[in-house]
Amino acid sequence: MFKTLLIVGMAIVSLQAMALSYDKNVPANIKSQMEADLGFMNGIQGSSQTPLHKEIFGQVSGAAYKKFFESHIVEVGMNSCGNGMAVACVIPFMNENKMWLTQNFVKFSHPQIARLMVVYHESRHAEGNNGNWPHDDCPTPFLDDNGKDMASIWTGSKLEGQPACDSTAYGSYGSSTILLKNVAKFCSNCGDKVKMDADMYATDQLGRIDDAKVKKSMLADFDAK
Ligand SMILES: [Zn+2]
């Protein structure tokens, strides 16, 4: 009798230890939204994946995404991230496995898969063995194909000269672009809206890759079967 109780007690403790922990100042609605978002992600099923997705995340599957996230982020807190334009950040010297959300994450309303794009972007920054994948400064000027200033899809702020670009497919912008493109292409249990949002936000984030050769190789990867 006592033994059974003890085992049950230990099981509960180990489950709690695995759960994501939130600082007290994370708003309750943001916490439950985050749990729902991660729950959605953990249920994704996929029919295939591109080579770059396979290399970084494995298969398009909730199990692979859960494993990736949980091995990178264990705590969530609120922070200004030292930049009024930031949506979220990882501050390696404070805690490499903690994701900080800013008021920009709280106050702007974006689709679920776009919020998950931010979460997986920050997860990649938790990789100290990869120098936490620091960003490049975006070019000045930084214009789109129509000659208009490139702006953040999240906050609308101008990106030229900001540390908000990457010159590799493997950093935070590249990997989250690869993730969303694969969800758009291969998720077999996502609705059309999720897939459209995933494609739209991925295409936007691909614009943060400021090396033309790298961008071209990523487009080729998305066309691969
Ligand atoms: Zn970043």
Describe, in plain words, how this protein is organized in 3D.
By secondary structure, this protein is mostly helical. It has one domain (19-223). Helices cover 48% and strands 5% of the residues. The protein has helices at residues 2-18, 28-42, 51-56, 62-70, 103-107, 112-124, 172-186, 192-206, 212-223; strands at 21-22, 75-78, 88-89, 98-101. The chain has a 4-stranded mixed beta sheet. α6 (112-124) crosses α7 (172-186). The chain is globular, with a radius of gyration of 18 Å. The protein starts with a helix and ends with a helix. 36% of the residues are buried. Bound molecules: zinc ion.
If you compute it from the alpha carbons, what radius of gyration comes out, rounded to the nearest whole angstrom?
Answer: 18 Å
Instruction: Please outline the major beta sheet.
Output: 4 strands, mixed
Give the CA-based shape: globular
Bound molecules: zinc ion
Uncertain segments: 1-7, 11-17
Count the domains: 1
Helical content band: 40-55%
Structural class: mainly alpha
Q: Note the beta-strand portion.
A: 5-15%
Report how far apart the termini are.
Answer: 55 Å
Compute the number of helices: 9
Chain-averaged pLDDT = 93
Number of strands: 4
- Strand order of the main beta sheet, please? 1-2-4-3
Order of helices and strands: HEHHHEEEHHHHH
